Amino acid sequence: MEAFLKELSLASKHLIEFRDMYDYANRVKTFKTWPFMGNCKCTPETMAKAGFIHCPNENEPDVAKCFFCLIELEGWEPNDDPWLEHTKRPSNCGFLSLTKSFDDLTVEEYYLLEMDRLRTFLVRASMGIQKEIQEEYKGYKKR
Ligand SMILES: [Zn+2]
């Protein structure tokens, strides 16, 4: 039960925080300590254009996550093309499917986009919860 609530509160925290990440400049700002700068394909600018934000941790300094579909990629090489790497993954990303720039969306288009994003976050949270429940169930059966 506790894990369930933790998962839900993390999902809603990210759902709210990542809303600012529709803005390209805000996404670029997350790449302050990104290991690939300058003469390569996956610069902070190209990463941000492809929807990524930088989410490093102690062991993996190059973890990038799409703010919209939440796909996480690591192990980047200088010649990786962020847009290509993102489209290669079967995430059905609503951000990648945008046919116009975010600022040109109508209110209705933005609403639909946000519904899509909400659905993605809920699916992701429920997957985490299912895993927790299964682990707990397994632990219980072993007793
Ligand atoms: Zn995405």
TrEMBL record:
A cellular component term from Gene Ontology for this protein is:
spindle
Reading the lineage from the top rank, the first entry is: Eukaryota
Where is this gene product found? Chromosome, Centromere; Cytoplasm, Cytoskeleton, Spindle; Nucleus
Keywords attached to this Swiss-Prot or TrEMBL record, sorted alphabetically, are: Cell cycle, Cell division, Centromere, Chromosome, Chromosome partition, Cytoplasm, Cytoskeleton, Metal-binding, Mitosis, Nucleus, Phosphoprotein, Ubl conjugation, Zinc
One GO biological process term is: chromosome segregation
* Gene3D superfamilies on file: Inhibitor Of Apoptosis Protein (2mihbC-IAP-1), Chain A
Keyword check for Cytoplasm, yes or no: yes
PANTHER family, per the entry: BACULOVIRAL IAP REPEAT-CONTAINING PROTEIN 5.1, DETERIN
Protein name in the entry: Baculoviral IAP repeat containing 5
List the source organism. Crocodylus porosus (Saltwater crocodile)
